[in-house]
Amino acid sequence: MSAQSPGGRINLRLTSVLMLDANSQALEILVQVLTGFGVKAFHRCTTVVEAREVVERAPVDLIIADGRLPGIDGYDFVRWLRRLEQAPNRHTPVIMVSGHTSAADVAKARDCGANFFVAKPITPGVLLERILWVAREKRAFIDAGAYVGPDRRFKNEGPPAGVEGRRRTDLHGDLGAAVTPNMSQNDIDALMSPRKASL
Question: Is the residue at 22 inside a domain?
Answer without folding.
Answer: yes
